[in-house]
Design goal:
heterodimer; A: 702 residues; alpha/beta; five-stranded mixed sheet; 29% strand; B: 311 residues; six-stranded mixed sheet; two-stranded antiparallel sheet; 10 helices; 10 strands; 41% helix
């Protein structure tokens, strides 16, 4: 087995062996001095050269030379090259990483069985020193078995695997495989990928760089046929006879097939079939199925649109959760005795909504007007002074507790200094812009959530409205200006107070001071301001498999449709148990969050936190990522070629350059012969010291 | 009077008292000298008065006024004439010791250093000379004369004290101090030069020439340590020159034969050149007894008396 050196430059230090030789040849016998009457005869005898070339202590010289030799060798980092040679030749112990795709598309009939067979085939014929790591991946990656050599354990691990509900992303799995391969000291590295290689899983920006010499082998699996997926469900709300209804509309997508096919579509509510439809789907076509409105009387009503089973059952259902009364409650305050026009445009604008998003209530601002305001509601002060006394205090507590306040400044708007500092806005005298056709909005923060809707082209023109009068606003500390008039005056100011938000609009929302109310942007603008003031996000009827939910976060729960801000006595900090779609329970610890619930499986996750209706558990619907149903796949060789391109330079097939150097480094690090050499050096130095001392003692004695 | 020469052997009776290592245990240099000389003389089986200077010179006819106690009555009986015995007046010779006390003399691989050995030798010679009624003087030198005791029959104690006092300290050189010694003599005598002679033979002869040229009887005692002669070292070491401090890395096994050869050649050349100048030369191994040195002295003393008688 030939010996190699990682840093052969240090071998130049072997020249230092000449030092002890030179010393042994030339050193003087300083230790023994003999006084002699006269050197007159000795000086005349020609002997010097011969004497100096005489080495008397061969053993000592050999020891010292050996010390230098070993020291130099240690610094040169020696190693036996046998393994490196094996690496170059592609033989020797292997580190095999089997990367198995468990995305839900692998549940297509025939694919999973083929994948299991391929994985078993990948681990067959293992050598005694080979090691196999088994990884599974979908949009994430997980190590099932790490560097195992026992084929029995490996086969048992493979047999326990099942396809999941996630979608395909090659990046995480390849990253994990890269880590394992990099950490391996075995000379041969192989990556075996078993997947249906869906094209959408490969972005080309995985950032994977496999270790030098890694051999990539792909084992594509395929199977199945035409597949019908419930791609989407639209839930249209309306009210009929004072009752809220939801009319689901399902969009079906068919992939494959060569002729039209009729598909039975079922709407299930709370697990019971409510309606059944038949859809006719052309080959590789789509269709929409509308269901009759369904009353939503109870909260967390679970619904599912399902088609008949086909080759891929996991995309055959679309789950959703709906709750009644989920409309945003808005209370608009007006001056007592004022004309209704002040709030007319606003209340009508909020009432116009396909899904009854806002429930508007108009009240004159007087004593007791703020009673009943709860977290999640929005209060709108339209051209009224900020209330004093108990009403004002209630309003402040409402905002600080999480409520939203929209102040629409008008002629009557006013508040004192204490409200200035609390609200962060000081209101000044009205500004008249009657000359030149009125003022206009000059600047808008389109990155703010209120205006993001209008950021795109032809999404709303804020320069159209003309403002003839508005109140001059002065933002104080903590307040931010979201829009300005063309003279620089703030048009919209925001400030967060406690858990709530305050928005101050500098002009009216009627037709007296401006013509905003008759502009197309009026309605979406008012909706956006109200929704933002509430602090409530869009309620999601379902999540996608793989997402997480912080069950200790009120807003996250509200976004999930689990809470509406009106639940009293709800304990979100206690220990809770979640039942997942398979019926298994997931225990989440109590205390301060965050406590994440990983939504891995499609279906309904239910929980019954204390303080909720035990007969109507909180429910979260989880659906698969429909993109996984995309049948487009990549060629396995294409993936292998793409991965081979990421292998570090000088891979094993080349057998030269960086790959070999990397192997040499690895092998040297594993062998660490330099440590042994240093130990030997220490032992030799000890022996040399003993010998030299003995010799010195003998000389001194003589 | 005939002198009987005893063999210079270490097994000579009394030789154990002449062993330098034994002598080194005697702190008193006077006692040491007596021990050496008495032991040496005892070993010779000769009269303790051997060599006394009160010797018969000639007869002459008695003349009125002569001391009648000096009439040789035996000769009168044979010749019937009065003759008076006439003894040579005993003025005796000057015996001067020139002792090298340079740093190199401090070397000693055995129990004593070369300087100790030379000190014993000088003390013994001085004592011996006093026994011979000679005047004894001392010059100790390295690069110059560091101790000087004027020759006198009463200066034995001073000589011995000076010998005890000298210490090796500086590098040595033969020429200048020996020239100084030669220039201070006013009458001929015996000069014993004791040194390790770490100079070239030419330099040694040049240094001795002023003494030899002044008609002195020069006795050269070349004192060397056994290690200087044999170079018995076996381990590589730095050899340091005692006089210059110079260090020199040496692998003895590679140099031993060459060193011995050079040392032998050096000793032989010095001896040849010294003898060629009419001086006495004695190589002394500092591990050997002192009797050889004493014999050499006696030979020189005899030679001096002979030459004086001839004169």
């Amino acid at each position: 087995m030939p010996l190699g050196f990682l840093v052969p430059l240090f071998l130049a230090g072997l020249a230092a062996i000449a030092i002890p030789i030179w010393i042994h040849l030339t050193r003087k016998q300083r230790s023994l001095v003999i006084e002699f009457p006269s050197l007159m005869f000795l000086r005349q005898i020609p002997f010097k050269e011969d004497r100096r070339r005489t080495i008397h202590h061969w053993l000592l010289l050999a020891l010292r030379a050996l010390v230098i030799l070993l020291l130099v060798a240690a610094f040169a980092r020696p190693f036996f090259q046998g393994n490196a040679a094996l690496a170059v030749s592609g033989t020797g112990p292997r580190e095999i990483v089997v990367l198995l795709d468990r995305s839900y598309s692998m549940a297509t009939t025939g694919r999973w069985d083929a994948a299991i067979t391929a994985a078993r085939q990948a681990i067959s014929g293992l050598g005694p020193l080979d090691k196999v790591s088994l990884l599974v991946f979908d949009q994430g990656a997980e190590s099932v078995v790490r560097s195992e050599n026992d084929p029995g354990r490996l086969r048992a691990a493979i047999d326990t695997l099942q396809p999941g509900w996630g979608s395909t992303r090659f990046g995480p799995g390849l990253k994990l495989a890269q880590t394992i391969l990099e950490e391996s000291a075995l000379p041969v590295r192989e990556l075996v990928m078993v997947s249906d290689f869906q094209r959408r899983g490969w972005t080309g920006e995985e950032g994977v760089r496999l270790p030098a010499g890694t051999r990539v082998r792909t084992m594509p699996v395929s199977g199945g046929g035409a597949n019908v997926a419930v791609a989407d469900v639209v839930l249209r709300r309306d009210r009929f006879s004072g009752r809220e209804r939801v009319a689901p509309s399902a969009r079906l997508v068919r992939t494959g097939g060569d002729a039209e096919a009729e598909v039975a579509v079922v709407l299930e509510v709370e697990g019971r079939e409510i309606q059944r439809r038949t859809a006719t789907l052309p080959a590789s076509g789509a269709a929409t199925v509308d269901f009759s409105p369904v009353p939503v009387a109870e909260r967390h009503t679970r619904g599912t649109v399902r088609v008949a089973g086909d080759v891929l059952s996991r995309d055959d259902a679309r789950h959703f959760v709906v709750s009644p009364g989920s409309a945003q409650r808005v209370r608009v305050y007006t001056r007592p005795g004022a004309a209704g026009e002040a709030s007319l445009f606003l209340s009508h604008a909020l009432s116009i909504s396909d899904e009854s998003r806002f429930a508007v209530e108009v009240r004159p601002l007087g004593a007791g007007a703020t009673d009943g305001l709860a977290t999640g509601q929005v209060a709108v002060l339209t051209d009224v002074p900020f209330p004093l006394g108990t009403t004002g205090s209630q309003l402040r507590r409402f905002v600080e507790g999480g409520g939203g306040l929209l102040v629409v400044a008008g002629q009557s708007s006013a508040w004192g200094d204490d409200v200035d500092s609390w609200m962060g806005v000081r209101i000044a005298e009205p500004v008249d812009r009657l000359d030149g056709g009125g003022g206009r909005i000059g600047w808008v923060d389109y990155d703010h959530p209120i205006f993001q809707l209008f950021k795109g082209p032809r999404s709303g023109d804020f320069t159209s409205p003309r403002f003839f009068r508005y109140r001059a606003l002065v933002p104080l500390d903590g307040a931010g200006v979201l829009a300005r008039f063309d003279d620089g005056s703030p048009a919209l100011i925001e400030r967060r107070i406690g858990q709530g938000r305050v928005l101050v609009w500098a002009s009216t929302l009627d037709s007296f001071w401006n013509d905003l109310a008759v502009q197309p942007i009026f309605l979406p603008f008012v909706h956006q301001m109200t929704r933002y003031a509430s602090g409530r996000g869009e309620t999601l009827p379902w999540f996608t498999a793989g997402q997480v939910l912080d069950v200790s976060d009120v807003r996250a729960m509200a976004t999930a449709g689990l809470l509406q801000g009106t639940e009293e006595g709800l304990d979100l900090e206690g220990e809770r148990v979640v039942i997942d779609p398979t019926g298994a329970s997931v225990r989440l610890p109590g205390g301060a969050g965050p406590h994440y619930l990983v939504l891995e499986d499609a279906g309904f996750y239910t929980m019954r936190p204390p303080g909720t209706d035990q007969d109507r558990p909180l429910a979260v619907a989880v659906n698969v990522d429909l993109a996984e149903s995309d049948p487009a796949t990549m060629d396995g060789e294409e993936v292998a070629a793409a991965l081979s391109a990421t292998v570090a330079e000088g891979d094993g097939t080349g057998g030269t350059g960086g790959a070999v150097d990397l192997q040499r480094t690895d092998i040297e690090r594993r062998q660490s012969l330099w440590r042994l050499l240093l130990v030997a050096v220490l032992a030799l130095l000890a022996a040399e010291t003993v010998m030299a001392n003995k010799r010195s003692t003998a000389v001194a004695t003589s | 009077m005939t002198q009987r020469r005893a063999p210079a052997r270490t097994d000579t009776p009394g030789a154990r008292f002449l062993d330098p290592k034994v002598l080194a245990r005697i702190d008193n240099l006077d006692l040491l000298a007596r021990t050496v000389v008495d032991s040496f003389l005892h070993g010779l089986h000769s009269s303790p008065y051997l060599g006394l200077s009160m010797e018969f010179a000639e007869h002459r006819a008695y003349m009125p006024g002569d001391d009648i106690r000096k009439i040789d009555w035996r000769l009168y009986a044979r010749t019937d004439r009065h003759y008076v015995k006439q003894y040579e007046a005993e003025t005796n010779a000057n015996f001067t010791i020139a002792l090298d006390v340079s740093r190199s003399m401090a070397y000693g691989s055995g129990g004593i250093t070369k300087l100790d050995y030379a000190r014993f030798l000088a003390a013994s010679l001085a004592y011996f000379s006093i026994r011979q009624r000679d005047r004894v003087g001392l010059y100790a030198f390295d690069t110059e004369v560091v101790e000087h005791v004027r020759p006198s029959v009463r200066h034995l104690d001073q000589v011995l004290h000076a010998l005890e006092r000298v210490v090796p300290g500086r590098p040595g050189a033969l020429g200048p101090p020996l020239f100084t010694v030669a220039s201070t003599f006013r009458r001929k005598g015996i000069v014993a030069v004791i040194s390790d002679f770490y100079e070239s033979p030419d330099a040694v002869i040049d240094a001795l020439k002023p003494l030899i040229g002044s008609k002195h009887d020069v006795i050269v005692f070349h004192v060397l340590d056994p290690a200087e002669l044999e170079f018995p070292f076996d381990k590589p070491a730095s050899f340091e020159d005692l006089e210059t401090g110079e260090r020199f890395p040496v692998v003895p096994e590679k140099l031993r034969e060459g060193y011995r050869q050079m040392m032998r050649e050096h000793v032989a050349e010095v001896q040849r050149r010294v003898l060629g100048q009419g001086a006495e030369y004695t190589l002394l191994d500092s591990s050997q007894p002192l009797d050889m040195a004493l014999f050499r002295y006696l030979l020189a003393r005899q030679k001096t008396r002979g030459s004086r008688g001839a004169a």
